[in-house]
Amino acid sequence: MSDENHSERASGALHDFDREGDRSEVSLADREYAIYRCQDCPNVVLTMQDCDGGMTCHDEPMERVTETKLDIRPPDIRQVLLDAFGLPKPGLDICLCVIGEGPLSPRELADRLDYDESTVRNYLNELVEFGLLEKSQLNRESGGFVNVYHSIDLEEMREETLVGFYAWAGEAASLIEEANLTKEDYQESDFEGGLNEIFWERFRDAQSED
């Protein structure tokens, strides 16, 4: 399936609206994930599993969120991997090739993917440091050895990438919450500048501190 067809299918799924006047509601009832919110505090939980009996907060059942009024833009897998893990398409190509056909040496990968071998080596080092691939040495029949790369256990990879993404999503959620607090501060205080100026200045200051 082409990227365009996949995007169209995802877009169609996310834009399944129930319309009430001028407001649009996106149904979340049939997603592969579930979102729950506490009825007593602002806590919101995302889960990829069907939790029998739902989730709890303060020892009380949480309410499952079945719709949102925000028009959600469907994510692109390449952009998700780039934003969350800093992994561009060449790195993903190399990782997938090792998972599917490994163990492979840098030269074998370069030949299969038609990438420069130095580029392949750089991404392999990053993928090993990141924890998705492992490096080992394979003895040559003619003497010496060659470095080859293979994937970690696929179940371990699944868990680690999901946890890593949740950590990234948590950081993103913190930024959104801070943005909402900025709007509240603006409404409650007497600022000379516009909200847009205050908003971007606040986040520029936060980036400078990092």
- How far the N terminus sits from the C terminus, by CA atoms, comes to 41 Å
What is the radius of gyration computed over CA atoms, rounded to a whole number of angstroms?
23 Å
Helix content: 40-55%
How would you spell out the order of helices and strands? HEEEEEEEEHHHHEEHH
The biggest sheet amounts to: 3 strands, antiparallel
Strand content: 15-25%
Shape: elongated
Mean pLDDT, nearest integer? 79
Strand tally: 10
Q: How do the strands line up in the largest sheet?
A: 1-2-8
Q: What class, by secondary structure content?
A: alpha+beta
Summarize this structure as a short list of keywords or feature phrases.
210 residues, alpha+beta, three-stranded antiparallel beta sheet, 7 helices, disordered N terminus
Tell me what you see in this structure.
- The structure is a single chain.
- The chain is an alpha+beta fold and 210 residues long.
- It is built from seven helices and ten strands.
- Strand 3 and strand 4 (44-47) form a beta hairpin.
- The longest helix is centred in the C-terminal third of the chain and has 35 residues, at 154-188.
Please give the structural blueprint.
Elements: H1 3-14, E1 17-20, E2 23-27, E3 34-37, E4 44-47, E5 56-57, E6 60-61, E7 63-65, E8 67-68, H2 77-85, H3 89-101, H4 106-113, H5 117-130, E9 133-139, E10 145-151, H6 154-188, H7 195-209
Antiparallel strand pairs: 1-2, 2-8, 3-4, 3-7, 5-6, 9-10
Helix pairs in contact: 3-5, 4-5, 6-7
